[in-house]
């Protein structure tokens, strides 16, 4: 391998796959069992290249590799059919564990954004669905001839990273996708009304976990006490949730805001000490996870599937999340004035160039 290609931008970004941790994952899950050519190391780098270069599909990826000496020196990319088979059969857990390893690295290195002095640990939970025609993945069909996988994400607002994900068939009920996401008793959790569930609220309250969520429109409530506010468009009440025979076990707080744009917006929380105005502002931060989902779908390759079984789809999703974390860490290392989106654009065109190229172009 040439000295130049040893120092390409792609090599620098993906050097984590050359370390002992990734090798231990390959051994743990027998990722290279009976492999003669396309090893897991090349598989990982190929998928990260596919993500960061915005290469549409496996055919184009293998075509690029066939006609690019630089790519062939960096990784062994097999034929389309071989690559497709490996996506479907190589254990996705290798990529899953690598993703969580990088989450740990990112938590250590990325700066903390303090949204206010009391809440320096804010988590947002939401899900998004990646669809495909049911004819291509009949086992994942969920409605109207559509198949899909659901990505339920725990987003660390203070670090701006997806801290945990649960990847399930799209037909899985939202409330069943929350396993392991409420794991920090010190955090404040924000989530939408799709997760409305009295038992969940009571469980979180019993475990001492604070949350703010949107109230559903037809919720049955009984006012126990109304608190004074100094805003005629703001109401703050202690309530019972549910009818007498199906009532939540704890009192909750309902904060209602009125405005011309959104009309009436009702929020439920088990936090009785934070001012009502702040509850409203905190819940608005939930929109950050929507921005994250939009960024991922626009800038990485997850809208077009590279395989049609759960294993292949999970490998693709974890590869996209790994690419996002590697990009965030690379952005931090360069500390450039340009945004992470602009950096991704520069990377897309220069992945196979000398690593100094990015330092020069990013200023």
UniProtKB/TrEMBL annotation:
One Pfam family of this chain: DDE_Tnp_1
Domain DUF4372: 6-62
Domain Transposase IS4-like per the UniProt entry, residue ranges: 121-326
Keyword Cell inner membrane found: no
InterPro entries: DUF4372, RNaseH-like_sf, Transpos_IS4, Transposase_11
Molecular function, one GO term: transposase activity
Keywords linked to the UniProt accession: DNA recombination, DNA-binding, Transposition
Entry annotated with the keyword DNA-binding: yes
UniProt GO BP: DNA transposition
Domain of life: Bacteria
Family: Belongs to the transposase 11 family.
NCBIfam families, sorted: transpos_IS4_1
Protein name: IS4 family transposase
Species assigned in the record: Anaerosolibacter carboniphilus
